[in-house]
Amino acid sequence: MPLIFEQVKLDCGYRIDLLIENKFIIEIKSVESLSVNHLAQTLTYLKIGNYKLGLLINFNEVLLKNGIRRVVNNL
User: Fold this and answer.
1) Any bridge partners for residue 9, and if so which?
2) Of 9, 73, 75, nearest to 46 (Cα)?
3) In whole angstroms, what is the distance from residue 63 CA to residue 1 CA?
4) Strand ranges (DSSP E) for the chain?
5) Measuring CA to CA, which of 14, 27, 33, 63 is 20 to 30 A from 41?
6) Do 25 and 51 touch, CB atoms closer than 8 A?
7) DSSP label of 67
8) Global confidence as pTM
9) Does the pLDDT at position 47 exceed 70?
10) For a pLDDT cut of 70, what percent of the chain falls above it?
11) Are 45 and 16 in contact (CB under 8 A)?
């Protein structure tokens, strides 16, 4: 995802794991536990891209359903 600030495209950018139909972000992790930083990263992607909904998925869980967090932007 390119970073554009005041009509200037900056060389640095963000790397979203999955972007579905330019509407929905899926951020994939494999960590012992999800932290506030992971949530903030996903929320930042949502705000920059002006997307409403995302999923933060941690595959390092015994049950996958325990590793899924829904993240929303201004709903």
Assistant:
1) 4
2) 73
3) 31
4) 2-5, 8-13, 18-20, 24-29, 53-58, 68-72
5) 63
6) yes
7) G
8) 0.80
9) yes
10) 87
11) yes
pLDDT digits (tens, 9 = 90+) for 4-32: 667 776 666 678 899 999 899 999 999 99
DSSP 41: H
| Residue 18 token pair | 């999955």
**Residue corresponding to tokens 């994939």:** 28
The amino acid occupying position 68 is I
The string over 40-57, giving b where at least 16 C-beta atoms fall within 10 Å of a residue's C-beta and e elsewhere, is ebbbebbebbebeebbbb
